[in-house]
Amino acid sequence: EDQVTQSPEALRLQEGESSSLNCSYTVSGLRGLFWYRQDPGKGPEFLFTLYSAGEEKEKERLKATLTKKESFLHITAPKPEDSATYLCAVQAAGQNFVFGPGTRLSVLP
Amino acid sequence: GAVVSQHPSWVICKSGTSVKIECRSLDFQATTMFWYRQFPKQSLMLMATSNEGSKATYEQGVEKDKFLINHASLTLSTLTVTSAHPEDSSFYICSARGRGRYGYTFGSGTRLTVV
Question: Which residues of A, range 87-106, sit inside 8 Å of B by Cβ?
């Protein structure tokens, strides 16, 4: 059975304090791993798609990496506006998304 | 590109009434639409998948007669919560996937409160 876990469940950072969020997955035939940002009361906003181990993608202060078992979302010098829940999801061939439980990030000024 | 519009953003209804939520893909044809439910501080739980012109496929434990899904066109899917009860109060989110696309685009969500 496809599974996705995320850690930590919640993370508090001071503004400028870099850190990483983890997404571990077990899936047969990974087709893609997706990172989304979700603000309270809103739908998820697409951040990245990673397709194969070793792949990296960057967007502003965020950088996503992928291995055969996990993905990391690195946040460099975060700002308060980066506060949100970060969701990862995996898609196996012929299957729908399986979402992780998310990491709630709070960046304090 | 790839915008999905979901309406209404919030709705309050009386117990026993029905509520319809709309999900529209604005700039692409959505061959597949997905409906999710999300409880506070929890992740998204897939309720059903619908392909244009076909009956929706419901996840285990989701009542087909209670959550009616219609995907009559390539740009519109609707979720109707019938005979709503307070336990149906939740955040409902749709997402859409276009032909040949891997990614999913999400709507902004609908907060349903049944009183």
Answer: 87, 91, 96-97, 99-102, 104
